Amino acid sequence: MPATDKTGKSGVSFTEQEALQFHQQGRPGKLEISPTKPMATQRDLSLAYSPGVAVPVKAIAEDPSRAFDYTTRGNLVAVISNGTAILGLGNLGALASKPVMEGKAVLFKRFADVDSIDLEVDTQDVDAFINSVRYLGPSFGGINLEDIKAPDCFIIESRLRELMDIPVFHDDQHGTAIIAAAGMINALHLTGRDMKTTKVVCNGAGAAGIACIELVKAMGIPHENVILCDTKGVIYKGREEGMNQWKSAHAVETSARSLYDALKGADVFLGVSVKGALTEDMVRAMAPNPIIFAMANPDPEITPEEVAAIREDAIVATGRSDYPNQVNNVLGFPYIFRGALDVHATTINDAMKVACAQALALLAREEVPDEVAAAYRGNRPKFGPDYIIPVPFDPRLIHTVPPAVAQAAMESGVARKPIVDMATYRNQLSARRDPVAGTLQRIFSKVRQQPKRVVFAEGEEEPMIRAAASYVSQGLGQAILIGREDEIREAAGTAGVDLNRPGISILNARLSTKNQDYAEFLYGRLQRRGYLFRDCQRLVNNDRNYWGAIMVARGDADAMVTGITRNYSVVLDTVHNCIDTKPGHRVIGVSLALSRGRTVLVADTAVIDMPTSEELADIAEEAAHVARRLGYEPRVAMLAYSTFGHPSGERSERVREAVKILDRRRVDFEYDGEMGADIALNMDKMAAYPFCRLSGPANVLVMPAFHSASISTKMLQELGGSTVIGPLLVGLDKPVQIVPMGAKDSDIVNMAAIAAYNVT
Ligand SMILES: NC(=O)C1=CN([C@@H]2O[C@H](COP(=O)(O)OP(=O)(O)OC[C@H]3O[C@@H](n4cnc5c(N)ncnc54)[C@H](OP(=O)(O)O)[C@@H]3O)[C@@H](O)[C@H]2O)C=CC1
Ligand SMILES: CC(=O)C(=O)O
Ligand SMILES: [Mg+2]
After folding, report:
1. Which one of 3.10.20.600, 3.30.70.120, 6.10.140.1670, 3.40.50.720 gives the CATH number of domain 172-331?
2. Band of residue 22 on the pLDDT scale cut at 50, 70, 90
3. Is the shortest distance between the CB of 205 and ligand 1 below 6 Å?
4. Which amino acid positions bind a divalent metal cation, per UniProt (predicted)?
C-alpha cells in the first residue's frame, strides 16, 4: 500500500474524533510539569523551600544574573497569546488558543529541549495585554508571542521589546518570515533567479505577511517588485480602505487591483492569508517555474495537488507536515530561542534572524541522514524542488541552527554570556535530542517502505482498535483485528474509530474457513506434548493469541502484536507453541531504555531466568544484533555486581566465563566484563580500568539474570524517568511483539511497527 501519492502527500490521516482523543487521553492536554530536584525528605524540603531557599533568594537579589544558575529562568520560555488570530482560524479567543499554545510549548521541548509554558491572556485590549506581560520578565528567559492579530501584534511586540530585557519574539511575524526566507533563498537558487529582478506577491498583510515582505526586501528584493494584498485586494499607493501604517509602508504604484492582476507574470506567491485564497487561474497566470508558498494553516491557500493539476513547473510549499516543503515556523522558534537562551541574549535581533535563515537554507543543500529520510515518508530527500527546506525531524537542526544564532548574537553584541568553545557547545546540543523519536522514526520509515499486515490479536479491546486504526492511517500497512465483528464495531464506535477504511479488516476465528487447517497445524506441533486434536481446535477457536500467532506462522499475516489483557509469560508460551525459534538465534527480550539523550539496550528482560555462561554469551550476541538492526554500533557490557574480579564470587564467575566464550567465538562487536553498571555507563569510572576494551560507554547491557534485568529496567522507568520500550521479543522465526498489560494505544502502535520491522 503506497504511503505517498504523486504530490508526495503522506498517507497520514486522522478523524476529528481521533484528534480530540489524542488531546484528551491520559492527562488532558499536552504537557505537565515535573520537578528536577528530589522532594522526598525533610532535608529536601528544607533546601527546596524554607529555610534553604532563602540562600539563592539573597544571592539573586545581590546579583540578578545568578537567577540563570539557581532557577528555571535560563531555559524557560513563555508562549503567550490572546487568541485573536489562531492559525488561520481567526479570532476565537484566548481559551480556544490553548491547544495551539500548549503545542508550541511542547515543540520547544521536543525539538530544542527548551522548557516552555503557555499563558493565555484573556484581553483584546492592547494596553491591558502589554501590562499583563511586561511584569513577567523575571519568570522567563524569553517571551514567544503567538497568534495575536495584526496590527495589534506590531504594537504589542515593539512595546514589550522596549519594556523587557529578555528576548520578545512574535513567532508569526519573525518565525514565519525566517523560514519563508530560507525556503525562498533555495527556491530562487533552484530556478536560477536573481533577487533584484524577482517579482513577489504576498497575500495577507497581517503579522506574517508584513514580516515576510520586510525580510525578503532586507534580503535584496526591491521594494517596487513586491505587491502586498489583503482582503480588499492590492495595497496600492493612495488606497484608503482597510489601511494601517504597516500596510502603507509597503504600498506601491501599480495598476493591479486584485490578487489575480498582481499575480500576472509574478515569480513568487507568498500566502499567509486563508484557505483557498489562490485559485487555479491565478496559478496559470504566474511566470514560468513559479514559486508558490501557500502557508495558511491548517489549510493552505492552494494544495500541492491543485497546483500539480494545472502546471508541473511550480515549486510548492505549505505550512503542513503532510506535504513536502513544510514552510512552518516550527523550524525556527525552538532553535532561535535555544541559541538566544544559551548566550543569555537580551533580544533576538535581525542578525540572529538572518543567521537562522541562512543556516536553514544551507542545511537543505546537504546530504540527509537516515532520520530525515524517515521523516520524509521513507524517500531520501535530495536538494531540489521537492526539498527546499529541512524537515522538522532533521536531527542536525539542533546542532546547526542554535550555534548560528548564538554566534550572530555574540557578534552583534547582545550576548550576555558568550560561548567560549563552539565545538563543545555543538556536542552539548546534540545530546539534547530526544532519542526515542529518532529510533522510532527510523523504524516507521522502513516499515512504510514495505508496509506489513499486522495482526492486532485482542481485537475487541479499545486500545487495540485505536492502535490498528492509527497503524493504518500512518501508512504502515494493513491491520487485522481478531474478534467478533459486532463487538469490535461497538467498541470502535465507543472509541470514535471509523473502521470503514481501506486497510483494516476484522477476522472472527470461529467463522473462518481456515479453522480446520489451523487446528491441524497446531495439533502437528503439540500432539506429542499432551494435546488432543479437540484441545487444539478449542485453542484455535477461543484463544485469539493462538489464532493470530498461527496466522503469522502460516504466512497469512506478517507480524502480530498482543498483550494488553494477558501476562507476558502466558502469551509468550502461546506464541512459542505456534512459532519456532529462528535457526541460529535464541529467544530473548531486549528493552530499550532511553534517558537524557542516551539509548541503552538491556537484555534479557523477558525469557531466560538464570542464564548459564553459554546463554549469557548468546544473549550478548542476540542483543548486539538487535542494536545493529536499530542503527546502533554495539558496545556490550557483561554486567555483574563485581568489576573485573572484585569482589569475587560464583555469580560473577558465570559472567566472566561468558566473556571468555565470546572471545572464543570471535564475535564482531565490542564487549567486555564482568563489570558494574556504573563502570559500564560512565567513562570517568571506566578510566580506572585502562585495559577495558570498550571504546565508549556501553550501549548494550547484558544482565546476569532475568530478575536483575527486569528489576533494573522497571526501576529506571519508575524512578529514573527513563522511557523504556519493550521488552522487544527477539529470536522468533516470525515477528510477534507482546506489549505490557494495560499498554496505551501509542505504545501498541510502536510495538506493531517494531513487529513489522522485525528486529531479529
Ligand atoms: N506556515 C507558517 O509557519 C505560518 C502560517 N501562518 C498563517 O498565515 C495566516 C495569517 O496569519 P497572521 O498573519 O498571524 O494573521 P493576521 O490576522 O495577523 O493577518 C491575516 C491577514 O490575512 C488577510 N486575509 C484574510 N483573508 C484573506 C483573503 N481571503 N485574501 C487576502 N487576504 C486575506 C487579512 O486581511 P485584512 O488585513 O484585510 O484583514 C490580514 O491581512 C494564517 O493562516 C496562519 O495560519 C501564520 C504564521 C506562521
Ligand atoms: C504555524 C503558526 O504559527 C500559525 O499558523 O499561526
Ligand atoms: Mg501562529
Report:
1. 3.40.50.720
2. confident
3. yes
4. 146-147, 172, 297
